[in-house]
Amino acid sequence: MLEEQMQVMSLIRNTTKMIQKDMAKLLKAFNDQKREEKKDRGNDQRGKVAEQNKPPSAKRIRNILVEVEGEDHEYHVLKETLVKDTCTWVFLQPALRVPHISTSENNRQVSQNFCNAITTVIIQAVEQNASLCELINAEIMKDDFDMDSYVADSLIRQILVPAFGKTSKYKLFLLLDGLDELEDLNELLSFLKVIREEDPRINVVFISRPGVLSSVKESSPLLAVDVTRENQKEDLRAFIWSHINSLSTIRKFDRYVQQRIADKVEEVAPNFLYAAHMLTRFDNLGREGAVIRNLEKPLPSGLHGIYEGLLTDCYRRTELEHKPVVSKLLHWMAFAFRPLTLNEVVSLVRLWLNDADFELESVPEPFESFLQVGDPGSDAEERVKIQAQGGWGTAVSELEKTQTVVDREVIYNDGALPVKFKERSMRSFFIEEADAADIHANRIRPSEIHRQMFLDCTKLAYTTSHYPFPIASALSRYIVVHMIPHWSRIDFERHTVAEQIEAMEALASTLSNKTSFSRMMEWTGSSYSGTFTDEFFERISRWGQLLSVNKEGMDKDAVEWWRTVSENSRACLLSLIKAHLRQTYISLNVDTALASYRRARDAIKTVSLTLPFSQSKLIRAEQLGSCVLGIEGLFEDVKLESTGYRALASLMLHFKHLKPAETLCQNALGGLDGALETVRARELMARIHLEDDAQAAHRDILECFEKMNDESVPLNLRHAVCITKAGVEAKLGMNEAAAVSYAHARTRSVLGGGQQARLHRRSEELEPATATNLALLGSGETDFIAQTYLDSIQYLDNVNAAAPLRMDLSLFYQHVIGNIEAARLALDEVLDSGSTGYPYAITDSSPDYTVTRAVDNYSALLYGIFRSSHDPKQKTELLTTVEGLLNRPLALDVLPTSITYLTFRLIVLSRMYLKLGPVTKFQDTLQSVLTGCIDALSDTISWNDADNLACLSKALDIIGSSISNGQKLKKMARTMHSAVFCHLDPKVRLMDDENKDDPDEDGGDDGESQTDAHRRRGPH
Fold first, then answer.
1. How confident is the model over 319-334, as a mean pLDDT?
2. What pLDDT shows up at residue 995?
3. What's the whole-number average pLDDT of the chain?
4. Crossing angle, helix 446-460 and helix 342-353, to 10 degrees?
5. Is 142 within a domain?
6. Which residue intervals make up region (Disordered) (predicted)?
7. Does residue 566 form part of some domain?
8. pLDDT per residue over 335-360, tens digit each?
9. Whether residue 266 is found in the same domain as residue 250
10. Which of 846, 768, 840 is nearest to 808 (CA)?
11. 879-914 pLDDT, tens per residue?
């Protein structure tokens, strides 16, 4: 009995212990969850506060600059991860009016492009300081402001120098890291030169390897600080302990073990990154005993030792069949001339495995250790929201896609994100040639990498239909642009005969156009002269010397090609030139003919040699450059048939050479058989004759019109015939017949009658309709035109592009229908819309012009209501509305075209203040108008003189009307306004000066200074 009770008690005790352990785990999980939620709420709250603290007008400046994705991520990471009491040699500077601004190498879009780095600096500055933001806004709105947002020097001189000039109260402390990654170091040197010449209140600190530092020292005096291990010893110790206290496992270790770890890492770490890697490795071990045993072994020698271990581990964990793919992938990422996107990487991997369904998730090992997808801080949803707003590239056919039916999964499509190394040093680890004595090296020599990349490029140098799986279009462009640069970096002396033959056969196959490489050149519009340089021809001559050694194992066609090239290196492009000519001759429209012809002409100029004509004639390449007929009969094996004559005739018409075009087209008509080609040639002849012989064009198009109903003639060609027929008839004054032909064109389009009619009506809706509005008003069709506007706006709203049309609709409501409330509602919708700064889709209207029109017209509309109203409360509301126009969403997103165009709003405000008060606001507002106009008329800018003269005259008229004896001022206002119609001719001034020099002439009382004369200039 006692034994049984003891067993029960033991069982209860064990169960209780298990329950206690489970409860402890649950409590720990709950506490961890609470901490994470609190942390997330804190991060969200800080993010909201940071967003609210940004000046509203900062978005204007952001929208006129180049878009840099995730530009503020590095800055916030630096603020949040800075270890306390470290890096005092950088950050313990005199008090700064602007917080530290940084750019880092981790964002390759920023680090490789100095213009993007300066853009990031400007955005951070204006979003952190409201008064500085307003100062830069005012600078940008000046009429003499002229900036190219794609040029770093322009950004520096037009924004940074004025904002942080000698007399500025602001100071910029700029920290630049990763300058080794810059594509063009000259931009940095130019920036430092500007700093030295202008002497703004800008302090620049940059971190780089010694090689970059020596280049900068040659052009700019620098205070160099060697960041040695010794002077960073205290910082390294603090960094190590900060990581130990934050890593999830090590922070629970015994203090003795933590101290052992800290001492060992501090002893061997050459830099902070090495220390972070080693601490993470110890944290992953998870056990104190395992860590102690590892500390007793030799640690990796430097970062490359760590990366070598990561690479070995990566290959160890990779499946045997995927190891070559992982090796190729890592080396492609390191040696590619630009960052590759995820779509491009997937295309490459599928090519290597010849598997159309392969996904990168099947080889996670390189992404766990070395690679990452996307830049830090990029937000998929935010990015797609911006893209969904539409741009000037949006097609009319896309308007019916509403934002509500967008596939949510498209938002998370990461195919366009870049694939990059997690650390910059990882890339240099692969690029630097491995030590031959290092038996653990898993890297390949650079020459072999470029050879493999070149071979991959030749395999992809086909049109996209060659492969059973889609190839990313961006990768195809990379192939065309960078295939030859990869080949140029192959050192053939370091390769076996078999490897040499493989590279020689691939180059011969590509340049002899067996892979249709000519079509790829036409599709991308790539330049021969930029790719096939003198250095290339010299190198291919050296490769040609290998033919005598390697021809036994080489393909016969490749041997023949290399034999020709070894005799004349520039003959390597002859096959591509012939291919371009053949493609020109069979082109069905002038666009494809132009693409082929331009590449042929570019290649001919590049080879720079005399080319044989048929019948033993010779012509220089330079003579071919400006003449389309130079390609006729250029090669005996490139036959010019009837379709070729038609294609050449279309080119001649494009270049406005009508007589040669007529001759060539006549040659085409003489040898054509079949209705299809006859219709094509006869329609072209009608367009040629239309320029100077409309009757002949009419005969041609009638003959064409009779034959176009043949079943072999496609709908798009029938549509073109009808359009040409309408144009001929319109020129002959046959307007009714032209209208019928246009109706035929709408019903015979490729899209079909119904679709084409809708698109035709929609295109008409987007045209300026002032005259049409007046005509419709007289015929009682105002409801139709209003509904037409509304239908078009409904479509354009899907891509956030309806603001320009709403602007026109408001004018229609106001001036045609007389519905003031509807006009005001339309203007409210314009100003409440947003903008990214890009031109609106479909209409291609610029947002700055749209906001300028909206502010101007709304001010005029509200002042009209103000004058007719007798209600003081309504007048006050109208005044408040005009005061807040520049704080509406569109005005905060986009800068108005010019400060001159905002003067009318100030005039309206002054008139309202005159009626309602206070008088001080009336005086201040009108004084700002007078001062602004006089300053604008006194400067060296002429285009704004007419507008400022008109505004100045209005201001004088207001003053004259506000005082009892103001007739003189009102007369002066009329005189001032009449000066708008004056324009000073420089020749007239020269004649006046000559008359003054003549002693016989009476000089009279000039009474006008040069400045006065300058003020009377009209717009150019």
1. 92
2. 47
3. 79
4. 90
5. yes
6. 31-56, 990-1020
7. no
8. 999 889 999 999 999 989 988 888 88
9. yes
10. 768
11. 999 999 988 988 888 877 778 888 889 999 999 998
Residue pointed to by tokens 């229609």: 812
Q: Calculate mean pLDDT across residues 230-246.
A: 86
Enclosing domain of residue 146:
59-217
Instruction: Out of 878, 913, 941, pick the residue that ends a domain.
Output: 878
Token pair 């339309």 is found at: 826
Query: Which pLDDT does position 379 carry in this prediction?
Result: 55
Q: How many degrees, rounded to 5, is the angle at CA 914 between CA 908 and CA 916?
A: 100
Does residue 634 register a pLDDT over 50? yes
Q: 935 with 973, same domain?
A: yes
| pLDDT at res. 722 | 92
Same domain as 130, residue 46: no
CA–CA distance, 690 with 693 (Å, rounded to integer)? 6
Question: How far separated are the first and last CA of the chain, in Å rounded?
Answer: 116
In a domain, residue 649? The reply is: no
Confidence (pLDDT) at 1: 61
Whether residues 203 and 69 fall in one domain: yes
- Give the DSSP per-residue string, 592-613: HHHHHHHHHHHHHHHH-S-EEP
Instruction: List Cβ neighbours of 424 (8 Å cut-off, separation of 6 or more).
Output: 105, 106, 178, 180, 181
- The CATH number that applies at residue 102 is 3.40.50
| 21 shares a domain with 71 | no
Taking each helix axis from N to C terminus, what angle separates 288-295 and 255-268, rounded to the nearest 10 degrees?
30
Taking CA 34 as the corner, what is the angle to CA 374 and CA 281, rounded to the nearest 5 degrees? 50
Cβ neighbour number for residue 354 with a 10 Å cutoff: 10
Distance set, CA 516 to CA 461, 521, 765 (Å): 8, 9, 44
Residue 381 lies in a domain: no
Are 700 and 689 within 8 A, CB to CB? yes
Answer with the one of 268, 299, 330 that is the final residue of a domain: 299
Q: Are strands 101-103 and 172-177 parallel, antiparallel or unpaired?
A: parallel
For 370-413, the pLDDT digits (tens) are 999 876 655 555 555 555 544 545 555 555 554 444 455 666 67
252 and 198 co-located in one domain: no
Residue (of 569, 578, 588, 571) closest to 516 by Cα position: 578
Token duo for residue 1010: 């040069």
pLDDT at residue 748 in the model = 54
With tokens 């008090």, the residue in question is 95
**Three-state SS letters, 292-349:** HHHHCCCCCCHHHHHHHHHHHHHHHHCCHHHHHHHHHHHHHHHHCCCCEEHHHHHHHH
Least Cα distance to 453 among 497, 487, 495, 499 occurs for 487
Measured over the CA atoms of residue 37, residue 40, residue 45 and residue 46, the dihedral's sign is: positive
With cut-offs at 50, 70 and 90, classify the pLDDT of residue 25.
low
Of the listed ranges 553-567, 676-690, 772-786, 986-1000, the least confidently predicted one is 986-1000
Going by pLDDT thresholds of 50, 70 and 90, the confidence category of residue 115 is: confident
The pTM of the full predicted model, rounded to 2 decimals, is 0.71
Cα separations (Å) of 882 from 58, 790, 815, 818, 867?
21, 26, 20, 21, 14
Does residue 819 share a domain with residue 747? no
Q: Residue 745 is encoded by which pair of tokens?
A: 């064109």
Tokens matching residue 967: 């007739």
Decide: helix, strand or coil at residue 387.
helix
* One domain for residues 69 and 184: yes
CA 611 to each of CA 132, 578, 625, 630, 645: distance values in angstroms, whole numbers, following the listed order: 64, 12, 13, 11, 21
Q: Report residue 216's pLDDT band, with 50, 70 and 90 as the boundaries.
A: confident
pLDDT of residue 413: 74
| Contacts made by residues 624-628, CB under 8 angstroms, sequence distance 24+ | 625/601, 628/597, 628/652, 628/655, 628/657, 628/660
Buried b vs exposed e over 392-423: b needs ≥16 C-beta within 10 Å?
A: eebeeeebeeeeeeeeeeeeeeeeebbbbbeb
